[in-house]
Amino acid sequence: MKNLILLLSLSVFFQVSVEAQTKPDSTAIREIVLNYIEGWDTGDTARMAQSLHPQLAKRGIVPSRSGKGNDLLSASYKDMVTWTSYQKNAPKEDQKFENKITIAELGKNIASATCVSKEYIDYLHLARTGKGWKILNVIWEPNYAEMKKK
Of 3, 16, 51, 56, whose Cβ has the fewest other Cβ atoms within 10 Å? Predict the structure, then answer.
């Protein structure tokens, strides 16, 4: 019986300890993902650059221009920062859309998250670096559900 009580006590202790360690990480990851998507939406290159790992590998699956099948688009850190600057003058709809960020997995130094915005669905892999959490890999596609509403 004493062993069972000890085991239960330890499991509660370790559960609380793990939760305490991951809450700051969860907050930091959400902030990084918001910098990424809101930086894009507003053309804020500083926010975009701050959110990305220098070795970013980003891929998009989009309908091909021919109308048959899909194309694969690729972007690097430099591409994303440059393309973000073009968003400054892009016309934006007045309707406010709440970006939905979900952290699917959180390890010690890696994490997986999803960001659903008005325009895109992004699946993100993040890595803990000496400069905090950074987005290392992204695969995305247009948010077809929102596009249908237009």
Answer: 3
Q: What is the domain range of residue 10?
A: 2-149
**Are 120 and 108 spatial neighbours (Cβ–Cβ below 8 Å)?**
no
Give tens-digit pLDDT for 6-41.
Answer: 555 555 444 443 444 478 999 999 999 999 999 999
Tokens of 124: 């993100």
The C-alpha atoms of residue 8 and residue 56 are separated, in whole angstroms, by 43
Using a cut of 0.70, tell me whether the model's pTM lies above it. yes
Domain count of the fold of the chain: 1
CATH number of residue 81's parent domain: 3.10.450.50
E strands, the chain, in order: 52-63, 70-75, 100-106, 110-116, 120-129, 132-142
DSSP string, 65-105: TTSSSEEEEEE-HHHHHHHHHGGGGS---SS----EEEEEE
Buried b (16+ CB within 10 A) or exposed e, 112-129: bbebbbbbbbbebbbebe
Structure tokens at 61: 């699956």
